[in-house]
Amino acid sequence: MRHPGTVLFSLIALASLAGAQSAPSPSGAILRQVEPRYSGKRAKETVAFLDRFVRWPGNRGFDASIAHLADRLEKAGYVRQDVARAADRLIYRVEHYPMTTPAWEPRDAVVEVVGERTPILRFAINRNMLATNSWSTPDTGVVAELVYAGMGTPAALDSAHVEGRIVLADANAGRLFAESVLKRGALGVLGYSLPAYTQPETHVRSIQFVGIPYDTTKRGWAVALSFDARQRLRTALARGPVRLRVRSDVVWTPNAVEQTVVAEVRGSQVPDERFVFSAHVQEPGANDNASGVGAQIEMARVAANLLQQRTIDPRRTITFLWGLEIRSTDRYITQDSVRATGILWGLSLDMVGEDTKKTGGTFLIEKMPDPSAIWTRGEDKHSEWGGSALTKAQMTPHYFNDLVLGRCLEVAASNGWVVKTNPFEGGSDHTPFLRAKKPGLLFWHFTDQFYHTDGDRLDMVSADELKNVGVSALVSALLLTSADGTAARAIVAEVERAAIARLTTERALSVAALAEGGDAAKERDILETWGAWYDGALASTADIEVGGASVETRSAIADARARVQALVQSYLGAPLNSSGP
Q1: pLDDT-derived band of residue 14, with 50, 70 and 90 as boundaries?
Q2: Cα–Cα distance between 246 and 138 in angstroms, integer?
Q3: Residue 183 CB neighbour total at 10 angstroms
Q4: Per-residue pLDDT, 20
Q5: Section 565-569 average pLDDT
Q6: Whose CB among 113, 306, 339, 485 lies 3.0–4.6 Å from 311's, allowing a Cys bridge?
Q7: Cα pseudo-dihedral 150, 156, 159, 164, rounded to 10
Q8: How confident is the model over 404-415, as pLDDT tens digits?
Q9: What pLDDT is attached to residue 387?
Q10: Dihedrals phi, psi of 322, to nearest 5 degrees
């Protein structure tokens, strides 16, 4: 689901300050094995399958998607867990959870002005038009007077006398439904609330999906409007009274179950320690989030192929989750406290396949909370999805940010892929990991002008982008699940170089801020906080080496921490109104 932080080559240039140009990659050999095996075309085939459906838990499209994933896993060599042998290392299962409400699936809908030949909206063209949990109307539809209620405020709704009428307002259809139908007796609502980044005046028929509460009493409905639909309705009202016909056809499936697919490449040495991937199945879009599902199932196939060919032997477990956003990931973490102890890293794939020339989105790594989420400056930027400033108490010092960024930059170095980062914002499957105090990152794209709209279809998806993301993600997992002392120490060195690059950048920004009249105490605080964060990040590298950090690795960590601390002190000890150390 999210303009970004570290630009592709700036980090590399800064890292050269610490001699990074000749540093060996900790993952180069793994990348050379994964890259030729990973097929972006194959990943996109799964995206195409899911894109056929409006996918909400328990409905036909969601269940068909789950079945598709199970079939792909079987063909890749994964064995169903209930029939697997103890020696099997490729296993999967489909978990079932009873739903408290029936599953919802839209089949058709139309909005038309009585007396006009051309409908305002049709489901066949605008499949996001009908709010989730809307009910069916009679076959002949609901015909009633249309009233306009401005911004849909309580006062505007009272003035419009909405009872027994259909309400049009410039407001989110879900909020409008609660105020108009549930509180004031309206028959249904038409809401318009497209954010500016979706460019509604360019994509005039674009609609973002919305939802309303499940309600068995009123059994009402809500429709989200495109810019074009709103304009046509306002024009009709300007000519005089308007009678509107709205028809909707939905299927409710009682006693539905929410399904989650869990697949694992079992570790050979410490299988209870694991790297967990998650990609959510629900939502009607291709990029959001059929792309995450498609990228991840191809990752699972490549991992199986490498294991079968004895090219890799992960000593820790790699777990893949597909299910309902946030809930499936949270459930996996919290339902088994013993299992949770072994979760060492989590990475969410959400909106990862975008054709950036079409969507306008940029590939982003949403970082774990670091000081850029307190002081967002320089090349760091929050996305238009939105983020608020964090506090020092919310910081999570860890090497995961820089390790994963390094793998993406390694892929980008060969093909010009644009890789950026953004400060932590939340809102996807990485948040359950962080809530559980586990390292958690998000791969995504923003700003996407088709985000949550019915313009998010297969033609907005790039097989090349799917491959770049999938390869980077899988290489990260294979590196961490098999890291020996040599790999661990290479990662320590990589994080040290990232620390030096960041501290050098922050000092330059502080010097510039003071030249503009900034506060010296604040600038010292920023440098100290970044120094403390990277000290913690380097300390956290002690868990990389399988079996525990060796004497050599512990020594490398201590030396790196000492050098970074010395750099911080040298920066703080020198006047900040100069550029020298």
Answers
A1: very low
A2: 10
A3: 12
A4: 39
A5: 97
A6: 306
A7: 80
A8: 999 999 999 999
A9: 83
A10: -130, 125
Nearest-angstrom CA–CA distance, 190 and 576? 57
What is the C-alpha separation between 316 and 274, in angstroms, rounded?
6
86 confidence band (pLDDT: 50, 70, 90): very high
Q: 74: alpha, beta or left, given left = phi > 0 and alpha = psi -120 to 50?
A: alpha
Token output for 367: 């970082």
Instruction: Tell me how far apart the alpha carbons of residues 326 and 280 are, in angstroms, rounded to a whole number.
Output: 8
Kindly tell me if the per-residue pLDDT of 17 is higher than 50: no
Above 90 in pLDDT, residue 18?
A: no
Quickly list DSSP for 103-145: EEEEEEEEEEETT-SS-SEETTT-TT-BPBTPPPPPTT-EEEE
Token pair in block for residue 301: 């196939």
H or E element, residue 273: strand 270-280
CA gap 79, 513 in Å, rounded: 59
Q: Can you tell me the mean pLDDT for 203-217?
A: 97
- The DSSP secondary structure of 386-438, one letter per residue, reads ------GGG----SHHHHHHHHHHHHHHHH----EEE-----STTHHHHHTT-
Q: Residue 574 has what pLDDT?
A: 77
What is the CB neighbour count within 10 angstroms for residue 367? 26
Model confidence at 248: pLDDT above 60 = yes
Q: Any bridge partners for residue 343, and if so which?
A: 274
How far, in Å, CA of 435 to CA of 431, rounded?
6
Q: Is the pLDDT of residue 10 over 50?
A: no
Contact 293, 322 (CB under 8 A): yes
Question: If you search the block for the tokens 């002081």, which residue do you land on?
Answer: 375
Residue with tokens 């491959």: 467
Q: Structure tokens of 84?
A: 């697997």
Q: Which residue, 278, 280, 284, is CA-closest to 263?
A: 278
* Model-wide pTM > 0.70: yes
